[in-house]
């Protein structure tokens, strides 16, 4: 932070410095330059291109917002974001489709939870059609269940293409291959970030959209985030017989978890992906089962919330691990929705990792979590449906960053 002009003023490289070139970071840059033209924004992304982690390794679903607690950020931003994402894709010629989806109760014990989703959807302003067992075939002839609901506003898109377009349209300076090693924040001056290459970038306000590493970046800034990212690997398969599925098919989720369960997704390219499950990853970017980073694993194990979480939900975790290790068990879970599937129909596809914030008492943070500190805005929990909600999230983070910028001397 030693570079000062002769007149005593600080030499800033930008007004807002964004760490993270996923869809949330790029949407924030886009929103800042839209709201305040002339604001200088620099985005630092450690990978050689955008959207290499959560953004580029998800199901590609444009979520309707039917699952989320009314009034929560997830509910408000997903409902608004879904409509905006479809419009954004149409405006820029990005592959997308509004397919609708089924949420299927596979046995009668799930009917109360299915009916609760109907009520939640209505409270969130989402049109939902209730279906009896015989009506499911109108949408998905191969899917079986006791009952279902159809949500017409769900779709799919190419989120990597969306991220690239946001980067281009933002007018921000995007620096790829810029891994952040140090952050020096001084409330009276601003922030200076040193990257692995030795470059120092100085800004008036920092925005942390580092996803899987957001808690580490918060600590580098000198802030206690009050949570830790516990990474969960989500494994996917591609369906060898995509003709079995027309659109999107989901199970009824367990309300105790923020995970939606193994689902069937016909993508914009016509392929059908099945997944993800949710098993603890042994590294922040632990896409392979054998990928282990001892320092990151040690950080997870040292967090008391990890142990509280494991003790509280070990039965759920054991089931997920079994389906991870056994293709037959995974196929059996899929057959609850799609009886025609065999283990041979499942072709392994690349995995993703969910950046899940966990509190010290083991609570899984269920809503988006954004915190402000002097000269900084930290996005500390933005897993699914963050891609769907990325445009409203970006505006919210941009508003907070611009407010901080206005308060800065």
Folded structure, characterized:
The protein is α+β, with helices and mostly antiparallel strands and 409 residues long. The protein is built from eleven helices and 20 strands. The strands form three sheets. Strands 5, 6, 7, 13, 14, 15, 16, 17 and 18 form a nine-stranded mixed β-sheet that branches. Helix 1 runs parallel beside helix 5 (159-170), helix 1 (23-35) crosses helix 11 (390-407) and helix 2 packs across helix 11 (390-407). Mean pLDDT is 94; it is low at 1-8.
Concise summary:
This protein has helices spanning 23-35, 73-92, 111-123, 136-139, 159-170, 214-221, 294-302, 304-312, 314-325, 327-335, 390-407; strands spanning 14-19, 41-45, 61-62, 96-97, 101-105, 128-132, 147-151, 155-157, 173-176, 180-186, 190-195, 200-208, 228-239, 248-251, 263-266, 272-275, 279-280, 346-358, 369-373, 376-381. The chain is of the alpha+beta class and 409 residues long. Helix 1 (23-35) packs parallel to helix 5 (159-170) and helix 1 (23-35) packs across helix 11.
Report the sheet with the most strands, covering strand number, pairing sense and barrel closure: 9 strands, mixed
Beta-strand segment tally: 20
Number of helices: 11
The portion of residues assigned to helices is 25-40%
Structural class: alpha+beta
Q: Top keywords for this entry?
A:
8-stranded mixed sheet, single chain, 20 strands, 409 residues, 27% strand, 31% helix, alpha+beta, disordered N terminus
Give the topology, please.
Blueprint: E1 14-19, H1 23-35, E2 41-45, E3 61-62, H2 73-92, E4 96-97, E5 101-105, H3 111-123, E6 128-132, H4 136-139, E7 147-151, E8 155-157, H5 159-170, E9 173-176, E10 180-186, E11 190-195, E12 200-208, H6 214-221, E13 228-239, E14 248-251, E15 263-266, E16 272-275, E17 279-280, H7 294-302, H8 304-312, H9 314-325, H10 327-335, E18 346-358, E19 369-373, E20 376-381, H11 390-407
Parallel strand pairs: 1-2, 1-12, 2-9, 5-14, 12-20
Antiparallel strand pairs: 3-8, 4-8, 5-7, 6-7, 10-11, 11-12, 13-16, 13-17, 13-18, 14-15, 15-16, 19-20
Helix pairs in contact: 1-5, 1-11, 2-11, 9-10
């Amino acid at each position: 932070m030693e570079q000062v002009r002769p007149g005593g003023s600080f030499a800033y490289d930008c007004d807002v410095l964004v760490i993270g070139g996923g869809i949330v970071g790029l949407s924030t840059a886009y929103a800042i330059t839209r709201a305040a033209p002339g604001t200088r924004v620099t985005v630092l992304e450690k990978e050689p291109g955008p959207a290499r982690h959560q953004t580029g390794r998800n199901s590609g679903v444009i979520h309707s917002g039917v699952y989320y607690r009314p009034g929560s950020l997830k509910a408000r931003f997903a409902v608004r974001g879904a409509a905006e994402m479809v419009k954004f894709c149409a405006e820029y010629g990005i592959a997308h489709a509004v397919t609708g989806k089924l949420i299927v109760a596979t046995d009668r014990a799930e009917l109360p939870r299915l009916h609760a989703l109907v009520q939640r959807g209505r409270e969130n302003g989402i049109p939902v059609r209730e279906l009896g067992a015989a009506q499911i075939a109108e949408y998905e002839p191969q899917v079986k269940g006791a009952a279902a609901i159809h949500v017409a506003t769900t779709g799919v898109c190419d989120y990597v293409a969306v991220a690239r377009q946001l980067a281009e349209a933002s007018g921000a300076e995007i620096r790829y291959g810029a891994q952040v090693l140090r952050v020096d924040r001084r409330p009276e001056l601003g922030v200076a970030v040193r990257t692995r290459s030795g470059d120092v970038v100085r800004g008036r306000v920092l925005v942390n959209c580092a996803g899987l590493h957001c808690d580490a970046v918060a600590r580098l800034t000198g802030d206690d985030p009050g949570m830790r990212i516990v990474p969960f690997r989500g494994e996917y398969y591609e369906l060898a017989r995509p003709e079995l599925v027309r659109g999107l098919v989901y199970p009824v989720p367990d309300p105790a978890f923020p995970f939606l369960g193994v689902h069937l997704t016909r993508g914009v390219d016509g392929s059908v992906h099945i997944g993800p499950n949710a098993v603890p990853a042994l590294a922040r970017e632990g896409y392979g089962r054998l990928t282990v980073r001892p320092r990151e694993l040690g950080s997870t194990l040292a967090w008391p919330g990890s142990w509280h979480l494991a003790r509280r939900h070990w039965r759920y975790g054991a089931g997920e691990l079994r389906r991870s290790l056994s293709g037959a068990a995974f196929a059996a879970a899929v057959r609850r929705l799609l009886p025609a599937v065999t283990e041979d129909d499942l072709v392994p596809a690349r995995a993703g990792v969910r950046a899940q914030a966990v509190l010290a008492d083991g609570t899984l943070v269920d809503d988006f979590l954004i915190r402000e500190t002097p000269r900084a805005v930290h996005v500390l929990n933005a897993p699914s449906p963050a891609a769907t909600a990325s445009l409203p999230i970006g505006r919210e983070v941009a508003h907070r960053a611009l407010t901080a910028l206005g308060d800065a001397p």
